[in-house]
Predict the structure.
Amino acid sequence: MKDEAGGSRLDGRRIYEGKVLSLDLEEVEEPGDVRATREVVRHSGSVAVLPVHEDGSLVLVRQYRWPARALVWELPAGRRDPGETPEEGARRELVEEVGLETGALEKIAEFWTTPGFCDEVMHLYRATDLRQGTARPEADERIEARRFSLAEALAAVDRGEIREGKTLVALLMEARRRRIDT
Amino acid sequence: MKDEAGGSRLDGRRIYEGKVLSLDLEEVEEPGDVRATREVVRHSGSVAVLPVHEDGSLVLVRQYRWPARALVWELPAGRRDPGETPEEGARRELVEEVGLETGALEKIAEFWTTPGFCDEVMHLYRATDLRQGTARPEADERIEARRFSLAEALAAVDRGEIREGKTLVALLMEARRRRIDT
């Protein structure tokens, strides 16, 4: 079965099936008569939220990320749970990671994080009308939350202190939005 | 051996070793006494380039991406070859994918694409002083290149037609730069 763009799967096998991801090795035919073997990481998709308080300040979290072997500043975010819509996932992660409930969740982007080898889709939201509750991180999460003004966050981007893909997209979209809005 | 942030690897095994990526399953101890099993995709790192012509127009490429099963608009980009610096990789991809040589390559960002499960680092460049030569894509690449004004590219972002992580970062950085510069 060809997809809309003209690609089709000829053969393949699952190398690994895991908790966060799976790995497939596939023989494919791509548009333009390209035959190739592709290594594909399968991922259920992710959600991330830029929380914006009434005074314009933003909430970022810092947590240790094993693959990076570093503490990483990023948006509250996580994987979509099975059966959950991206919006439900965004609301859940916002409560779990920073204890915030939102009265206004707006989708601002949907993108592939790294489509060369992974099917992960990132659903990016902006949350306003925030009410502070209590965070309840998962057992394997240690999360520090901090409020930044947009100017502070952009200065941290310029200094290379914020360096994570979805977080850069959200902060730069916010910068563009405020220039357009104001 | 603990890393700077306090994480250490207790045990692990390689599940798969491939051409584009490898997969490790690791038992780790993370800061805050978190013991966890992490699935980690290992990747050699990537380079991507925003080519900016003298008239301000930008060059993007469209190619089929099997994991997305779609034609994706993105920056000229690719994996780092072994032994290659990120800057050398950026120059190589720029020639291979769009036939452009650059007299001025500036690093604009370095970030993790998806640090929750993958160690890929993206090295992002902006290229000016461009000279047009002939593209020479790899055997399994079919690449369409097109020039966009920044306004056209941002309109395509707003319509959801450009939806790839590194490309959003680069276009939004360019928008911010021109507002600051001009």
Q: What stands out?
A: The first strand of chain A starts at residue 8 and ends at 17. The two ends of chain A are 49 Å apart (CA to CA).
